[in-house]
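Notes to self after the call with IL:
- keep both proteins in one doc
- input above output, always
- annotate only the second one for now

Protein 1:
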Amino acid sequence: MFSQTEDVVSMLRILCEPTPKFPKVKVYDGKTKTRKGFEVFMQKHVVLYFSGFNSIDSEISFLNYIHKKLEENPKEAVKGFKKEEFKILCIPIVDNKDDSAKIKLRFETLKKYIKCYAVEYFSKLPGLRLIKEELNYTGKPIMPVLTPSGDMMNEDAMDLIFQWGIEAFPFRKIDGEDLSLKWRWFWDVLKKLKIRIQLDGRKYIFIYGGNNRGWIQNLALALDKIKGHETIERADNVIEHYQLGKNDPGAIYRFWKEIEIKKASNLGSEIQEKMESLLYLKGDPHGWVVLSKGSNVKILGHMEPMCETVMDFEIWKDKVLQKEGFDITLKEYYDAKLKEIEAQKLKEMEAQKLKQMEAQKFKEMEAQKLKEMEAQKLKEMEAQKLKELEAQKLKEKLKEMEAQKLKEIEAQKLKELEAQKLKEIEAQKLKQMEAQKLEEQEAHHKPNDDDDAKVKKVPVDATHTGKTLPPFRSPKKSICEQICSCIKGIFKPCCSCD
């Protein structure tokens, strides 16, 4: 029946308006908050989303995310297609058992959040049989992609879009095959290590490892806690986690060895960069974490911020339903946490560096102070030495002066002695001369022998002459005259006896 349609608009009318008598179905435009007809999809590729009202509200955030990404750079050509050529149409599936009034009320609530297009119909669709038979709808959400001509571009792009998001544009099966090559090397390594992981587009898989058992245990406990959380169940998400090397420690070495071998095989620059990012995590002392959505690896992360992100799930859980989904909300919080930790580490490094600089500065100041003290001590020693030298020099000078003075005193004394001796010599000489003169006088006045006999020997004071004076001669002169005659020439006469 689909092959008989003229275009995508006709196709949509067949699904929602099987007979001309059936009242026209309106399409709600979440962007303009207005009702429109199916003509809005003329010449457009349409990504249909079929889901029951029981699960549609959990997918609205993700559909809004894809709608938002289609409006970014709308004229950009990707693989020959432009984003502006694609529209998302949500078609809720209503069962006969559902209460139309309640469905309508619920839809009115959803309209506040929905950004894409949605069929505004609150009863069982007339084309429900075709949807089930031709599009293989079984109750689980599906996402067929139609061309402008109404042909089937992809029977169900659900897993493709949920795994890869806007990267899967234009949402063909071949696009999924191309994308799977981006991470095939990673899953091939795990397969070679006999790590069996069942990949599903709606399943979130945490794979982690490292040498810090504390962080590994904390992450495992946190993941076990949230995987059964009401929010995760409402979002229809499944969370699984695997610790690399838990049962086989040798698998850790083989894992990194295989990654290095893959890197050496040069699989392309984009894959090389991803391998380098993964190998970089190997050096994290706290450990590493890989988060994938199906086969699409979403995060190559560090253990510490990832563990804290999962442990803080109660803080950001509401955004899982309000925004684009679990992985995008988690990555947003993880990136903020990573930035916070890196900023803290940088702050600590700067503080440590500042501390080291201060320590170095203090050390330099101490060294400078010690140097100055040594210089001061050396200066004082030199000053002391100089003082001692000056004292020694002064002492020597004083000694020299004393010696000189002593010498001068001795010279003076010697001079005085010499002068005294000379004086004595002169006195002696004078005495000798006076004695000589006296002898000559005595010889000139020599008395008679008789008189000599009569003359008494009178000694003269030895202190004056040192000799015995000649005896007095008495004769005819008076005694006074005789004495004066004897001492004449030595002393002046004591009286005028002449």
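Protein 2 (the one to annotate):
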Amino acid sequence: MSSIVLANALLRDISKCYENADDYDVNLYVGQEPEIEVFQAHSFILRARSAYFLDRHEYFELIAAADELTLTELVDHIQEHIISNEKGWLLENFVQVFQKISTYEAMRRLQDYCAELICNDPSVVFTSDFGSLEEPALLALLQRDDLVMDEIDIWECVIKWGLAKNKMIDPDVTKWTQRDFEAMERTLRNCIQCIRFFQIPAHEYFYKVRPYKKIIPRNLKEDLQLFYIVPMGQPKFTPVLPPRMGDLHFLDGTCSPNDYEAKILDATRYVVEDYEVFQILNKVKPGNSIKDRPSKPASIFGFM
């Protein structure tokens, strides 16, 4: 049976519903007093045929229903309609939309489109509503390689998200109690695994990550200390995730993520020890190699 025959049959059946149905739930009043004509209609048909009657959040219910009925073409059509005609609404409600679609396989086209928007301009999702994201949506974002943000900025957003989920905790980490650290560790446990700590400059690690060290797993913390203390030090327990494609902070196009010299192209390397002792190594001068670096720290600027 051709698609035209099916479409005609569908229209015929819908017409019968209009002519014979007694379950109208909408009255449309047309004209002005005293000449007003009343048209009875079904709200579900109005929503399906006109965006004027559609609550845009119902797009996702339509996609879910179409997917359940394996109406693949309809699923694709609705997604393309949103992308082509509802970009303004999508951007205004981006966090809610991203959350709805992030774990729904049928909405792959919308997922890819939203991911492209985020990777080109992360501010669309890192807004005042960012804390309302549920963990699966946040993890889907953190796992992307093409997120155009410095890793330290991603870390700070994750901390803000954790605070949004624990509203009773003071934003000032110096005021946290042991219970606060334990609550944040539980909240951020999975997110921490997605942070590419080894791509964070040492001075940013010192000021922006180290204060939260109590929520970092012991093995990861030990690997980070090894990484910052020992030239060419390789983590023992933690896989080193590559830099995100948008993060060019340390890369000159030839260095590998684990190359120590690549890590000191733009920043001085600081040594971080578990006893709160912080030491600084001399920055490599042009023409020098790692073997020329002094084996002992040049200065100490912190104490136990």
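Annotation: The chain has one domain: 25-30+37-300. The beta strands are 26-32, 35-41, 270-272, 278-280, 299-300.
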